[in-house]
Design goal:
The chain is of the alpha/beta class. The protein folds into 3 domains: about 270 residues, Aldolase class I (TIM Barrel, Alpha-Beta Barrel), CATH 3.20.20; about 60 residues, no CATH class; about 180 residues, no CATH class. The protein contains 22 helices and 16 strands. The strands form 2 sheets. Strands 1-2-4-5-6-7-8-9 form an 8-stranded parallel β-barrel, surrounded by 5 helices. The protein has a 7-stranded parallel beta sheet with strand order 14-13-12-11-10-15-16. Strand 12, helix 18 and strand 13 form a beta-alpha-beta unit. The termini are far apart. This is Aldolase catalytic domain-containing protein. It comes from Allofournierella massiliensis.
C-alpha cells in the first residue's frame, strides 16, 4: 500500500502569527513533541537571508537549524522551506544526513522557471525537493498541465497542491488532483496544503486521503491549525482521522501537550481561526491582505467587505495592491455629495456655542461626575460620534459607520450622517470630504473634529475618547467592540491626528490620546 505521510508546518507557517519568534527552548520542545508523536515530516522553518537568531525559526544556514534537532531523529524526516528570491542557494551546505532532508521550494506563476532552477540546484546538493507552487487555484487546467510537465523534467521527491488563498472546494480538489495525479510521474509524492478560510480543510484533507491514489501522499497540518489567520489544517484532527481509518499510530497526547504548553500561550496573545472576512477573500480567490487591509479600516461591516472584494479586478487578485484597495474603499464609502446647504445650517446652529464631543469610551460611565459638571458649567452643544449616549442628552448624533447606523432606531436627537450611509438623517454630509483626515482609516471622532473646524468652531471638549488599552475593554457598551486589534501605535496616530485639526481640544475625561 502506498504511504500517507503527515507533515507538520507549525514552526514555518505558524511563524506568520508571531514573526517566527517561538523562543529557542520552545522550538526544541515543539520538535521533540512532534518526533515523539510519530509525525512523518517536521518542517522547522524558513531558509532565509537573515542574521541568525536562536529564538526564531528563520534560518540562514542548515548548520544553524541543526542546533534544534534532537539527537534521536527516529524515522522522522526534517524539512525547511525556501523562496528562490529570498535565499541565496550558494549558502546551502551539501546534504550530510544530520540536518534537514527535504527542502520545499515555493514560487509564483510568474517565476516558475526561476523556482524550478532553484529546485534543481538544491537537488544537486543532495536534498530531497518538493515543488510547492503558490496558489494552484489561480492556474487554468492548461496551466496546471504545463507546470506538471516542467516538474516532471526535474523529477523532485514531491509536488504539492497549495491552496494559498483557502478558496478550494470539493469540486476544485477533485479537478486539480485528477489533473496532477494523471500527469505527474508516478514515483513523485503528491502533497496537499490547505488553509481554513472556509472551514473546509479537515473535510478536504479527509477526501484527499480517501482517494487512495496509486502514489505516496503528504498532508500538511500544524498544531492547533497555527498559521497566518485564519490558519491551517489542525494536525491533531487529521492525525486522529488517520489513526482511526488508516491504521496509523500517531501519539495524539504528545500533540495535545505541545498545544497546551507552547501553542496556546501564543494564541491567547495573537488569535487565529475562521472569520467571515477571510472566507470572503477565499470566495473571490484573493490575496488575504485585501481582507486584512479592509478589516483595518475599522468601519466596515462584513457585508461592506463582501461588496468591496467583489469589485476587485481579476488581474489584481493574486498580488495585493494597497493603493488599489484604498481606491475601491473610497469609491464604496460614498460618491461626491453637494452638502453646502446642510453645512451652512450646522454652522449657524453652532456659531458661538461651546461644543462637547462624546466618544463611546468607558469613561462615559466611570467619570460621569466630571462630564456632568462640565455640562452644567458650560451648557455645550453635545454631539455624539457613531452612537446615541444613554446617560447624556445629545443635541446631535454624528454617524459615519454603517454597522452602527444600521442599528439606529428612534433617535432622540438630530442625526448627522455621511453620504455612505443609507437611511433617514436630518443632515447629510459628503463622506469623502471628511474621511481623508486620518491616514489609519475613517475614524468618526477625527471626522467630527475635522467637520467642526471647517464649520468655524475654534475649540471643542471631548469626553469618552479613551483610546485603546491593553485589556481590550474600550467601550461603555461592549456591543460596540469592532474586534479590530489596536493599541499603542493607533493611540499615537490618533493623538497626532487630533493635534493636527485646526481647533483646540480639551479632554474632559482621561485618554491615551492625551498622554501621547
Amino acid at each position: 500500500m502506498h504511504s500517507i505521510k503527515l507533515l507538520d508546518c507549525t514552526l514555518r507557517d505558524g511563524g506568520y502569527i508571531n514573526e517566527w519568534r517561538f523562543g529557542y527552548e520552545n522550538i526544541r520542545d515543539i520538535v521533540r513533541s512532534l518526533v515523539k508523536a510519530g509525525t512523518d515530516i517536521v518542517e522547522v522553518g524558513f531558509l532565509r537571508n537573515v542574521d541568525y537568531d536562536p529564538d526564531c525559526t528563520r534560518w540562514n544556514t542548515v548548520a544553524e537549524l541543526k542546533k534544534i534537532l534532537p539527537a534521536d531523529r527516529k524515522n522522522v524526516m526534517f524539512s525547511g522551506m525556501a523562496l528562490h528570491n529570498f535565499y541565496d542557494i550558494d549558502k546551502l551546505e551539501p546534504w550530510d544526513g544530520t540536518g534537514i532532508d527535504l527542502i520545499r521550494v515555493t514560487f509564483h506563476d510568474y517565476d516558475i522557471e526561476e523556482g524550478l532552477a532553484f529546485c534543481k540546484k538544491a537537488q544537486d546538493k543532495g536534498y530531497k525537493i518538493s515543488c510547492n507552487p503558490i496558489n494552484i487555484m489561480g492556474y487554468s487546467d492548461a496551466g496546471v498541465l504545463w507546470l506538471v510537465e516542467q516538474v516532471n523534467k526535474i523529477h523532485p521527491y514531491a509536488f504539492s497542491i497549495v491552496d494559498t488563498f483557502g478558496s478550494m472546494r470539493q469540486q476544485d480538489l477533485d479537478r486539480i488532483v485528477s489533473l496532477v495525479d494523471n500527469n505527474l510521474a508516478k514515483d513523485i509524492t503528491l502533497g496537499l496544503h490547505l488553509h481554513e478560510n472556509m472551514a473546509l480543510s479537515s473535510s478536504l484533507a479527509q477526501s484527499f486521503v480517501n482517494k487512495h491514489l496509486n502514489r505516496d501522499v503528504i498532508v500538511d497540518a500544524s498544531l492547533l491549525g497555527m498559521g497566518r489567520t485564519p490558519g491551517n489544517l489542525c494536525i491533531e484532527l487529521i492525525a486522529d482521522y488517520l489513526n482511526l481509518n488508516f491504521g496509523k499510530q500517531y501519539d495524539i497526547d504528545c500533540m495535545l501537550d505541545a498545544i497546551q504548553d507552547q501553542i496556546m500561550p501564543i494564541r491567547e496573545k495573537e488569535p487565529w481561526g475562521y472569520s467571515p472576512p477571510y472566507f470572503l477573500s477565499a470566495r473571490y480567490n484573493l490575496h488575504r491582505n485585501y481582507a486584512e487591509h479592509l478589516l483595518g479600516k475599522g468601519d466596515l461591516s462584513n457585508r461592506d467587505i463582501n461588496h468591496i472584494l467583489s469589485r476587485i479586478a481579476p488581474e489584481k487578485k493574486t498580488a495585493f495592491d494597497a493603493a488599489y484597495a484604498d481606491e475601491l474603499y473610497a469609491q464604496y464609502k460614498g460618491s461626491a455629495l453637494d452638502d453646502a446647504a446642510d453645512r451652512a445650517k450646522l454652522k449657524e446652529l453652532l456659531a458661538g456655542r461651546k461644543i462637547l464631543a462624546l466618544a463611546p469610551g468607558q469613561t462615559l460611565d466611570t467619570h460621569r461626575q466630571a462630564i456632568e459638571a462640565y455640562i452644567a458649567e458650560n451648557s455645550p452643544v453635545i454631539i455624539s460620534a457613531n452612537f446615541v449616549p444613554e446617560h447624556y442628552k445629545a443635541d446631535f448624533a454624528f454617524f459615519t459607520n454603517g454597522k452602527r447606523f444600521e442599528k439606529l432606531e428612534a433617535c432622540p436627537c438630530a442625526v448627522i450622517a455621511t453620504s455612505n450611509l443609507q437611511g433617514e438623517a436630518d443632515y447629510r454630509l459628503d463622506y469623502n470630504s471628511l474621511a481623508g483626515a486620518f491616514d489609519k482609516g475613517a475614524n468618526s471622532l477625527i471626522m467630527l473634529l475635522h467637520l467642526l473646524a471647517e464649520l468655524g468652531v475654534d475649540e471643542a471638549a471631548i469626553a469618552g475618547a479613551d483610546g485603546y488599552g491593553p485589556a481590550g475593554d474600550n467601550y461603555c457598551d461592549p456591543r460596540m467592540k469592532n474586534h479590530t486589534l489596536r493599541g499603542a501605535d493607533y493611540n499615537h496616530a490618533m493623538a497626532e491626528a487630533i493635534r493636527a485639526q485646526e481647533l483646540r481640544v480639551r479632554f474632559v475625561t482621561p485618554s491615551y490620546y492625551e498622554k501621547e
